[in-house]
Amino acid sequence: MLTIPFKNKGSFLYAEIYEFIKQEITDGNLKYGEKLPSKRSLASHLAVSVNTVDTAYSQLVAEGYLEAIPKRGYFVCQIATYLMKDANRIQDKRATIKKTEVVTIDFSPNAIDQRIFPYDAFRKIFKSTFNEDDNNLLNKPDIQGELELRKALVDLLYHSRGVRCHEEQIIIGSGTDHLLQILGLLWGRNKPVILENPVYLKAYHIFEKMGNPVISIDIDEKGIQIEPLKNYSNVAIYVTPSHQFPLGMSMPIDRRIRLLNFANQEEGNYIIEDDYDSEFRYNEKPLPSLQSIDNSGRVIYMGTFSKSIAPSFRISYMVLPEELLKAYQETAEAISSPVSSLEQKMIAAFIASGFFEKHVNKMRKVYKGKRIVLMNALKNLGSQVKITGENAGHHLLVQLDNGLTEEEMYHRALARGIRVYPVSPYFIHGLPKHYKSMVLLGYGSLTDEQIHNGIGILKKAWDL
Amino acid sequence: MLTIPFKNKGSFLYAEIYEFIKQEITDGNLKYGEKLPSKRSLASHLAVSVNTVDTAYSQLVAEGYLEAIPKRGYFVCQIATYLMKDANRIQDKRATIKKTEVVTIDFSPNAIDQRIFPYDAFRKIFKSTFNEDDNNLLNKPDIQGELELRKALVDLLYHSRGVRCHEEQIIIGSGTDHLLQILGLLWGRNKPVILENPVYLKAYHIFEKMGNPVISIDIDEKGIQIEPLKNYSNVAIYVTPSHQFPLGMSMPIDRRIRLLNFANQEEGNYIIEDDYDSEFRYNEKPLPSLQSIDNSGRVIYMGTFSKSIAPSFRISYMVLPEELLKAYQETAEAISSPVSSLEQKMIAAFIASGFFEKHVNKMRKVYKGKRIVLMNALKNLGSQVKITGENAGHHLLVQLDNGLTEEEMYHRALARGIRVYPVSPYFIHGLPKHYKSMVLLGYGSLTDEQIHNGIGILKKAWDL
C-alpha cells in the first residue's frame, strides 16, 4: 500500500496524493500495468475521504498516468521515458540588451506631438463606444474591418483625398506592413513587386520574406522613373506619390499619368499608393491621390492613422479595386482580422463625430509652426547646408557640403545627445553618390525650443 | 488673357482659378511650354487679389501642372495624355452578399457568454490606463509587445500552465493566425509543417499560402500519432494537446513524452503547442502544458485571450525557446507589431489587478453549468447519440447512429433555426468513415433555456 508523507493536512491533500503517485510512476516505482489500491482502501489507509482519493485519481486519469477500467480498478499506463538529450543546448541565449545612448533631442521622422493628443475626446468616445448595448463589441471583428469604420472612411477619403470607393472595397489593417502582407498572400509569390529606391524598408523586407521577386527602381526628382518599368509586366508597383518616403518630394501630375498609363497596359499591373502622411502639407492643399485620377481600377490606395492619431493605434486601411475583391475574399478566409473591434469603433466614432477633422487641422497648424521654426533655425547653418523634402509630412532632409560623411554627421550629433536619421539605410543597394552626407530631421515630437537648441548644437557638431 | 467664369465670389476664388487652369491644360487648350499671365496681370484682369492668384498658381506648381521659372514666370509643364484603355473593365464586380438564414439558436463553438463580460472592470481599467502620464501610451508598441503585458504573462502562464519563461521570450500577437505567420516568416518556406488532422483550418491555410510544405497526420483517440512523424525531420509540429481542436480530447502523458522525444531528436524540430482554451476544463485541473515538461527548448507555447476575455480583443501570445530568439529578432525587424499599445496595457492591468483570474473563475463556473444543462439535455436523445470531447472548452461533439448524414444533420437543424457545426470541414483530406454524422455543439453563448430548447428541437429534427 502507498504511504504518502503528507506535508500539509489542508485542503490540498488530493494534490499531494496526485503528485506522489505521478512521481512514483515517473520514477518507475509504479510500473506499467500495475494495479493501484481501490479508492476506498487507499482512503482508509491514508485516513482521508474517498472523495479526496477520487479527485487525485481522476486527475491522473485525465493526464494519462492511470487508466480506469470499469469494475476492475485503476492501472498504471504505459508511459514513454523522456529522453533529455543534449541538455546543454539550453543556455542563456537571451539576446543582449542593446545599450541605449543618451539622447536628449530626437529628430525622429516618425514621432508625433503627444502634447496635442485629444485625450478628453478619446475618453468621451470610449464612454459612448464601450457600451453593453452594442452587440458587436465583443464579437470577433468583421474580417474586412468593422462596417462603421469602413463607412466613415468612404466619406473621409472622398472629401480629403478624392478617393472614390464603396465600403466593400475597404480593408482595415493593423498597419501598412500588415496590408502589404495581405497583398503578398493575395497575389502569391510569383508576382514581382517594384519598389521605389530609396524606400520604406519594411516594404522591402516584407515582400522579400514572402518570396516575391523584388525589383527596385531609382527615383529622380519627380519620383519613380517610368522608363525602367517598361522591362516588366504583371507587376505591383509600390509608390508614395504624395510625399516620397524618405526623400519627401511629391510626384508631379505628368509622372502620375505616365505611371497610370504604364499600369493600364496590362490586367495584372497594379499600383500600391501609400498615402501615409498626406494630411500634412503646409503651403498648398494636399495633392489629389493617384486613386482619384485612376479610371481603370489599377490603384490600391493605402493610408494609416499612425501620424494623424498616434502610432500606438495600429489601424490602417486600404482601398482595393473591384477586380481584386474576389481574390481578397478567398485570401481573407485564411486570416482573422488583427484589429480590435473596440478600437475600430472608437476611431469610427472619432471620425464621424468631427473630432478627427478638428484634430488634424490642429495638428497641421502645430506642425506648420514647428516647420517654420526648423526652417529658420536651419538658415543659420549657412550655405553648406541644402534642405529638401520640406513641403510635407513631419520631416525634411539636410545635406552637408563641408566634407563630413553621413556617418560623421550621425555620430557627432549623437555624441552631443542629438539623434538624426541617416538616409543611407533606406537605399536598397547602397547610397548613390548624390545623396551622400544626407540625414532626415523629423520635428513632429519636438518643442520649438528643442528644435532651436538642437539645430544650434548640430551647428557646432557639424563644424558649420 | 484667361477669362474665368466665376461661379462663386466667395473665399474659394483661388480654387476656381486653379480648377479652370488645370482643366485648360488637361483639355490641351493651354499647351506645353506656354507662358501664363503674370500673377499681377491676371489678378488685375480678374479683379481679384494677387494673393488669390498666387495660391492657385502655387497649387498648380505643387501638382506639376505649372513650372515657376524665377524672373521669367509660370509655364505649362509637359503632361502625358491619360490613356484610358478598356474602360469597361470596371464593372460592378462587387461580391454578392451571402443570404443569411434565420438562426435563432446558434451552437457556435467560438462564441462566449457576453452577459458575464466585466464591463465595469474594463471601464475602471480604461480610466487608469488611458493616462496622460504614461509616456508610452501613444508610441508605437514594442515590437515584441508591451513590457507590462509580457511581465504579467510570465507570472500568469507559470501559475496557470506551468510555463517557464522570461519576458524576452514572449511575443504578443494579434491572434493565433498572426503568430503562425510570424513563425512562417521566421523559418522560411523550406520548413515543413506537420498538422494534426482534423485541425484548426486557418493554420492549414496560413502555412499553405506562405508556401511551407504542409503534412497532415491523422489523430487517434490520444491525439497526433507518433509513428508517421518518423518519416520527417527538421519540422514544426502544430498540436492542441490540452483540448484537440475540433475533436476535444486531451493528449495523455505518454503521447506527450513521445512527442517531445521525437522533437528532441533533432535541432530543427519544434512543437507548436496551441493552448487556445486550456482555461476551461471542468472535472479536473487543467492539464500541465507540454512546455512545462519540455527541458530541451523544443516547444513554442501559444495562447489567446479570445475565449478568456473576448474575441473582439485581438491579443494572443507565444513563448519562444531561447534558441529561436535571434531568428525572431531578425524577422521581427521586418514587421511592426499589429497590437494596439492601449489594449495591451489594458489587458496587462486586467491581469495584474486580479480581475482576470476572478473573471476566468466566474466563466468556468458559468460554462460548467451550461455544460451540465447540455449533457442532461443530450441524455434525452437516447442511445443513438454518442458524445465526445466534452471535458474541456466550450463545445462537444455529437455523433448520430440513426442513418442521418452530417449534411442532413446540418440542414434539418438549420431549417428549424438551429445552427450546428459539421466536423468534416476540419479534415484536410475529407472525412474518415468513423467520423461521419458528427457535428460540433458549442454552448458558450447560449442560455440554459436556449440549450434546453435547442436540443429539444434537434431531437425532432433528427428523428430521435
From TrEMBL, chains A, B:
Similarity field: In the C-terminal section; belongs to the class-I pyridoxal-phosphate-dependent aminotransferase family.
PROSITE patterns, per the entry: HTH_GNTR
Gene3D superfamilies associated with the record: Type I PLP-dependent aspartate aminotransferase-like (Major domain), Winged helix-like DNA-binding domain superfamily/Winged helix DNA-binding domain
UniProt domain HTH gntR-type: residue ranges: 11-79
Alphabetical list of Pfam families matching this protein: Aminotran_1_2 (PF00155), GntR (PF00392)
Alphabetized InterPro entries for the sequence: Aminotransferase_I/II_large, HTH_trans_reg/aminotransferase, PyrdxlP-dep_Trfase, PyrdxlP-dep_Trfase_major, Tscrpt_reg_HTH_GntR, WH-like_DNA-bd_sf, WH_DNA-bd_sf
Source taxon at top rank: Bacteria
Molecular function via GO: transaminase activity
Keywords attached to this entry: Aminotransferase, DNA-binding, Pyridoxal phosphate, Transcription, Transcription regulation, Transferase
Identification of the protein by name: PLP-dependent aminotransferase family protein
